């Protein structure tokens, strides 16, 4: 338990400065020493970990499973019959199974916890006057935090400065409309929803900016008091696992019916006595239950999710893993996801024509040219003023460490700082000459940013930068080379935009406006009109090479990629062409989209892959339109306003680096590196996990089918002895099958995994193909093991025990060969890769060979399991059976491939 106990304080009722005083803090924040001291005193700003099931409860919950109940009944029946060894072994199996389930569930949970920790929230604080990004759990009472739209409030905060602040407090108040916040104090008895001067931990900033002082951390926050809602335990499950659970129940019923059927046949027609018959029915039931399957499926899923995390895709909600494999459309943002987000200004347009700028990246080295001739930026007043606006209407920081120039903040702004430095300007000096009084931050919705400055003579200026079309609406005049203002020539500027954008450059316009000397606050109305346009810049942002490859892979995997960007249509088209999205000629803009009704959008959406000048609300319409056409949509996003679309998409994908907390909260997956290629890797992994789950089922169920079938056939044929006894069956199910099946959880992707169309999400896991394959392989395993058993019985030198050894070893060796077959569901396994692609296969086989040796030859094991030794001829026959099983399945695969594949493209059976 941690945090300050501040129950006695009604922070909302205190004036902000009084609260600040009480908390012994200052507007510029605490010093690092004070933070350390307070951290010791109040503890970290975190809530106690959600209550987990106790170890004992987790252990016991493993027993709560129909299949285990059936085993317990089998134990009672064998005990009743006096077959104590069988009873002991069955109970042993129940205990081992419970342990394995318990350990694996624990491991899977740990893996997922580790992944969740990768998403720990951050907070922006002021300490000693410096702005710092820190882990939210290091906040202490008295810390000054900065809140911006998109943030999750990191602690309870008394606000002392607010600008258009709106906070979504639904989690505390149930109120779905975001509450407006100010700095005012309210009466002591005001309910939470009315406490205008407070921002509460865990709520979401949907608009505006603010500063506040932390009044409570950890359990002393409002949310800490209602901790109950955080203590739910999230079960490790997905629709597929739930379906399998359901399948387990149906299977159990079927097994019971089958056992009853064989019991009746044995008693009425074959003349077995009651004890023999009961034992046979128990064997049949035990044989048919896939004891190890649930554990294998859970571990396959957990391992897959871990692999995804290593490839920078962090899954927040497990069902997304399966949905990823079915995705048919990926809608991606452009900047930073498809492009590198390393921006450089290369073109400038002023009223006097175009200027080219040299240099790459953020390094401020480069010259200016007009018509091929170098110009000196120091003497060009218009150029200098344009650069000044770019430099001062700017919240980012450019810094140099070891010859590398990096930017903190928005790359578009970084490009403008570099540009100003190339023009020989000094940021400190400019900031000194034109100190900033106020600002309107950039938002994708209004597409501009504005700042208010005063020079030393008291003259006021508004500096504005933003999307050119937007600024053209706000400007009335343009600045000429000689410094005078003349009326705006819109047509000229439109042409400039066309020219810059058609080269794939991002366009941005810069403008200014004189302001009254006494004005210290800037409002929207101040800059809506009367601006003077200084010029425009063209910024390049090269595509990511790995995104080009990713898009190519998507296309061959039957997935459409749509690019959604705030950029100009021409820029978007040109970049889309480089990336391989769209045909280079079609793009739909946000304003065109707004004029369409839903039906028209649905009609057009298939033809268009590029959506330009679009804002977050358009994303929601696009997702809906795509979904209504039956698509499974993955959508990326980073801003607050992207949240509805992210939530609505089948797989919402938030950006880990530049994404807001709100967008992460709304998403099922977070990209640690903001890179489009990671989405493609996640889709591939999602398909692989699904394949591996399928392979585990395809591997384990025929083992059960083979054994149950062998017993059933033996009963139907009225054989004198059963080919396999219950304890032997349990050995096969629990030891060899599980050891071998675990290999499949580590299986790498199949060769054609990204060459086939997406999986239909409605498709049942046990498709007719899978049922066929399970029945087919079961049948050959029945034939293999029964023929070995019969051969043993016919062989005068062999005991019944040895004949059973032969049957079981036939089955296990058959499984070993089948393991290589099943690694490729319909692809041929006649390839070196099928044998070398997964090193765990050989380790597992080594383990199984040693275990089978002990099972067959080690006297105590012989005693326990009722087995006998085998000679070389028997082994040769067994190996031959294994090879035969492998070959028969390969022939079956060949037949399927002829039906389903065209070249490299195979439909999923
Ligand atoms: P994405 O492709 O990821 O959706 P984007 O960067 O293309 O994002 P926005 O960020 O919405 O889209 O930018 C849209 C336009 O707004 C840009 O083309 C540019 O003209 C302008 N712009 C971008 N960043 C800023 C900024 N920091 N200040 C002012 N204007 C900006």
From TrEMBL:
Membrane topology, as annotated: Multi-pass membrane protein
Boundaries of every Cation-transporting P-type ATPase N-terminal domain copy: 10-83
GO cellular component: plasma membrane
Single Gene Ontology MF annotation: ATP hydrolysis activity
Alphabetically ordered keywords of this record: ATP-binding, Cell membrane, Membrane, Metal-binding, Nucleotide-binding, Translocase, Transmembrane, Transmembrane helix
Cellular compartment(s): Cell membrane
Main subcellular localisation: membrane
Gene3D superfamilies for this protein: Calcium-transporting ATPase, cytoplasmic domain N, Calcium-transporting ATPase, cytoplasmic transduction domain A, Calcium-transporting ATPase, transmembrane domain, HAD superfamily/HAD-like
Keyword Ribonucleoprotein tagged: no
CDD domains assigned to the protein according to its UniProt record, in alphabetical order: P-type_ATPase_cation
Domain of life according to the entry: Bacteria
Segments crossing the lipid bilayer: 63-81, 87-103, 250-272, 278-305, 696-722, 728-749, 770-791, 803-821, 833-855, 875-895
Any GO BP annotation: proton transmembrane transport
InterPro entries: ATPase_P-typ_cation-transptr_C, ATPase_P-typ_cation-transptr_N, ATPase_P-typ_cyto_dom_N, ATPase_P-typ_P_site, ATPase_P-typ_TM_dom_sf, ATPase_P-typ_transduc_dom_A_sf, ATPase_P-type_domA, Cation_transp_ATPase_P-type
PANTHER family per record: CATION TRANSPORTING ATPASE (PTHR43294:SF21), SODIUM/POTASSIUM-TRANSPORTING ATPASE SUBUNIT ALPHA (PTHR43294)
Family: Belongs to the cation transport ATPase (P-type) (TC 3.A.3) family. Type IIA subfamily.
Name the record gives this protein: ATPase, P-type (Transporting), HAD superfamily, subfamily IC
Species this protein is from: Desulfurispirillum indicum (strain ATCC BAA-1389 / DSM 22839 / S5)
Organismal lineage: Bacteria, Pseudomonadati, Chrysiogenota, Chrysiogenia, Chrysiogenales
